[in-house]
Amino acid sequence: MIKNINVALIGNPNTGKTSVFNALTGLNQKVGNYPGITVEKKHGSCRLDRLTKARILDLPGTYSLNASSMDESVVVELLLNKNDPDFPDVAVVVTDVENLKRNLLLFTQIKDLKIPTVLVINMSDQMPRKGIKIDREKLEERLNTRVVLVSTRQNSGVDELKQILVDYPSISTTPILDPNSIDQNYFEGLSKAFPNQSLYKLWLVITQDVNFTKLERQKVPDTAQFKTQSKSYLKKLQQRETIKRYQTINTILKETYQVNRNEATDLRSKLDNLLIHKFWGYIIFFLILLTIFQAIFDWSSVPMDFIDASFAHLSEWTKTKMPAGILTDLLTEGVIPGLGGIVIFIPQIAFLFLFISVLEETGYMSRVVFLMDRGLRKFGLSGKSVVPLISGTACAIPAVMATRNIENWKERLITILVVPFTTCSARLPVYMILISLVVPNDRWLGINYQGLTLMGLYLIGFLMAILSASLLNRFLKSPNKSYFVVEMPNYKLPLLKNVALTVWEKTRSFVVEAGKIILAISILLWFMASFGPGNNFSNAEEIVTQKYASQPINEMELEKKIASFKLENSYIGILGKSIEPLIRPLGYDWKIGIALISSFAAREVFVATLATIYSVESDAEETIKSRMAGEVRSDGSKLFNWATGISLMLFYAFAMQCMSTLAIVKKETNSWKWPMLQLFSMTIIAYLVAIMAYQILK
């Protein structure tokens, strides 16, 4: 009979908790080096031995059980609820060998809940290089638990951890700190009022803060023996508890943990002096960004051209091999061009995720968080806001969820509201196609103009987010003062496995999720473009033939005229024509208007929509880029010129065009007020900026 147990992985951010999760389960779990990367519970399974199977729960990173943020509350709520199906049979607290003192605060709190608790000291392979020595046996004795030295990089200690988990019932649950030592009168009264309850568990129930905006304690009913104290008094008791715990931890570590800096050989301090320098730190960060965007254009051009041409050939091949009919038209004019419009951008998206993953893995991203705090605090944000803002370059949805790590409600709300200004991967397809059309592929001092333009769009989005945050900071008031605490992980060479898994998972997620939307919209658009009301559509061939009967026109040109006339009189053509007066001042025609409307579902749909429209209009084997480049206005001028291209890029830089983001903002703020504010304000800003750009540049 196989025995199943629940194992909870708990630890401070950046201790390598998720790496331990990977080593145990083998699941493809993202590993990051900045706080808040794990914002929700993640599960995996692991066979410990022949008769024991563990369900591994990777909990959000937390500094203590005194919950002050939403992701910390996830941990507290689980550990206080034995009826929760995820409640652990055994807790594994993952610590960093260099920051053991701070990490042990959380360990002592969990152990005092009388849950069997194992201490994992991660990154043990770095001990010789850091000049660190640990008396493991003595540490086990003083903490009254099992201690495992683990190195996920070298895959050492994992098998030993599995064996300890199998034998978890033998682990002592004796508390480390006596609550009466904090305040004897208070805790004696609490014990008398609730004699059959765990004293420390009651204490956490009384003091935990869990809500988003106005943090309120969970109430324990007053009795004759016990009266709930004021919040300020409870805060003093929490501070006293923390001091008592650190006193105990210091005593234990004096006997078991030694650091000889003379034996250390690391370069961390030297690198930090440079990378977080108040001047050179910003310069280095700017140069890194410039390198990234240059590489995205230079490295991806060949695979992009190949994919673009391949889908054009596939569409034409399908048309010649399949019998003529509505199904063939759907595939060749709707599905294939629509999917091609997103698949073509896989190389750029993969490269973007590659660079972000490498920055996270090396430990540099945390330095960026620290570096940016100096400037962001003036605008109502904190350094922790950089995490969602940078995460927003991948997708705004997880970026909004990553704000759970921000304790101050005002800073969190402002971050949520401005995150959509950062350029997400869904905008990248729009930028890439427009930049390739209107920006010359030339260089100056080795710097590619197209890459520089892309970087400029990213910076514009970030600056707009900062300016918006500053404005919101003036109107939103908070009585609470915020403090900035960030973990500085060690520098390390990125694990190729983790980087590869991150790139694969993120790229796959983008393609799959975007593909669902694009496929549905492409089919809808094809239907709307292939059918229409009235005689103009049904008799299009006859009308166009009569119109050009007296003009010398070849058969191929006539077919194009008929297709164009049909498109204008189709359902989608009528829709586009109806909004054309509104968007004409921006330099857009009715086809672009259709793409704008459809992209409110998801930004990347813009390119797929134009691909579908142009494929319906033309039977020629042409790529989406060449069709857009060949589009002309009634006066014969190019549609996608410098003015129109810049106007479109700026519109997408500022517009809120993702329904999923609005949904997650509603969920995180528990109100429709804030997402509606985002939608209308960002759309107005986008329209005004786009119209000014076009009118100035035309």
How many discrete structural domains? 3
Spatial order of strands in the largest sheet: 2-3-1-4-5-7
Q: Structural class, judged by helices and strands?
A: alpha/beta
Major beta sheet, specifics? 6 strands, mixed
Poorly predicted tracts of residues: 28-39, 209-219
As a percent range, the share of helical residues equals 55-70%
Number-wise, the strands total 10
- State the separation between the terminal residues, measured CA to CA: 76 Å
**Average of per-residue pLDDT values:** 79
**Cα radius of gyration in angstroms:** 30 Å
Give the strand content. Answer: 5-15%
Shape descriptor: elongated
Number of helices: 30
Structure description:
- The chain is an alpha/beta fold and 698 residues long.
- It folds into three domains: 3-170, P-loop containing nucleotide triphosphate hydrolases (Rossmann fold), CATH 3.40.50.300; 279-475, no CATH class; 513-697, no CATH class.
- The protein has 30 helices and ten strands.
- The chain has helices spanning 17-25, 70-79, 100-111, 127-130, 136-143, 158-166, 184-193, 199-207, 231-256, 268-275, 280-321, 326-343, 346-362, 364-376, 386-391, 396-401, 409-418, 428-438, 449-475, 496-530, 534-538, 540-547, 555-568, 571-583, 590-598, 605-617, 624-630, 642-654, 659-669, 673-697; strands at residues 3-11, 42-49, 52-58, 90-96, 117-122, 132-134, 147-149, 257-259, 443-444, 447-448.
- A six-stranded mixed sheet has the order 2-3-1-4-5-7, with helices on both faces. The protein has a two-stranded antiparallel sheet with strand order 6-8. Strands 9-10 form a two-stranded antiparallel sheet.
- α18 packs across α19 (449-475).
- The longest helix has 42 residues, at 280-321.
- The protein is elongated and about 105 Å long.
- Residues 28-39 and 209-219 have low confidence and may be disordered.
